[in-house]
Design a protein that fits this description.
heterodimer; A: mainly beta; 6-stranded mixed beta sheet; B: mainly beta; 7-stranded mixed beta sheet
Chain lengths: 114, 114
């Protein structure tokens, strides 16, 4: 089955700097890669996702890149702000086949220092 | 509209007792997922439903765990003969369909086994 590795487990940046979180996956059939943000004590919420037919997607200060050949994808946050502090989870799944559930990475705790 | 709801929000139980956790998905969402999140850890997939059927039960940690969904809506996760290692936050999520669709999470049930 699918296995998702996420790095780093913790990341501390200064406000205004960029943050990059990287994930690798094992199942070449995976074709959907969402990123979720979980603030302390709250539920995870989708912030951006990418499908295998594109290599990059941007939404304001957030971007995700996907390299299907290498089986890795990354989250990029530019001009970080204190409210970006949270745990970020990457995930992968293969839809259209017999599977349909997301396999999550273990999370990255991002701290943005003012 | 209403999001995913879960009850109870907190549950403290004695070791060996059975517990039942409830999830009300967003109306019209055919896919429903259960995850377990231990303190400071990632999201461990337990089981998902497409309609009332559960095609993938591979994530259930033991035969003490079971889940059902009726009427394509409400789902219950039952843990029999609870153990201390079952203590965690149990999150439910729903999506329009299985696979590459955004999953909307509920607030979770915090289970503590004493």
């Amino acid at each position: 089955g699918e296995n998702v590795e996420q790095h780093p487990s913790t990341l501390s940046v200064q406000e205004g700097d960029s943050a990059v979180i990287k994930c690798t996956y094992s199942d070449s059939a995976s074709n959907y890669f969402p990123w979720y943000k979980q603030e302390l004590g709250k539920r995870p919420q989708l912030i951006i996702d990418i499908r295998s037919n594109v290599g990059e997607k941007k939404d304001q200060r957030i971007a995700v890149t996907l390299n299907k050949t290498a089986k890795h994808f990354s989250l990029h946050i530019t001009e970080t702000q204190p409210e970006d502090s949270a745990v970020y989870f990457c995930a992968a799944c293969s839809y259209g086949g017999s599977q349909g559930n997301l396999i999550f990475g273990k999370g990255t705790k991002l701290s943005v220092k003012p | 509209g209403a999001g995913v709801s879960q009850s109870p929000s907190n549950k403290v139980t004695e070791k060996g007792k059975d517990v039942e956790l409830r999830c009300d998905p967003i109306s019209g969402h055919t896919a429903l997922y259960w995850y377990r999140q231990s303190l400071g850890q990632g999201l461990e997939f337990l089981i998902y439903f497409q309609g009332n059927s559960a095609p993938d039960k591979s994530g259930l940690p033991s035969d003490r765990f079971s889940a059902e969904r009726t009427g394509g809506s409400v789902s219950t996760l039952t843990i029999q003969r609870t153990q201390q290692e079952d203590s965690a936050v149990y999150l439910c999520a729903s999506s329009l369909a299985r696979g590459g669709h955004e999953q909307y999470f509920g607030p979770g049930t915090r289970l503590t086994v004493t």
